[in-house]
Design a protein that fits this description.
Blueprint: E1 2-6, H1 10-27, H2 34-41, E2 45-51, E3 54-64, E4 67-75, H3 84-99, E5 103-109, H4 114-120, E6 124-128, E7 132-138
Parallel strand pairs: 4-5
Antiparallel strand pairs: 1-2, 2-3, 3-4, 5-7, 6-7
Helix pairs in contact: 1-2
Length: 140
Amino acid sequence: MVSYQKTENLSASAEITYSNMRSYYEHYAVDWECSKIDEQISVLFNFDILFNGEIAGAIRLEHQDNGCYIRDLQVSQQYQNKGIGAQALTECERLALEFGFNHLKLRVFKISAAFHLYERVGFFVDFDDDRFYYMSKAIS
């Protein structure tokens, strides 16, 4: 069963992101470490994704003028391919609506398998650059 709670341990949550994203950082030669992630996420709306009561990932949202931005959606490797990411996106929609937004936005590395999940649940590519797809979805 998947559930959500506000993140209490930002450092542990940052570690999930670092672990999941390390190969992308290396691929693109991005100098990034857990302390930088911890610093960046401290100003976001942070939620743990729980699977059968265990922390399985993280959702991080940011309010912007024209929508709610999914800054991070991470599912730890041992919990991937169980539908948790798709369920977490539904939770992101619910939270965005609760915050008063009718658009979700995100960016994803072009080499990330998550791109296909975002397309499958209705996100569209608005534009891209050399590394990222910038995607959005209208919600109601």
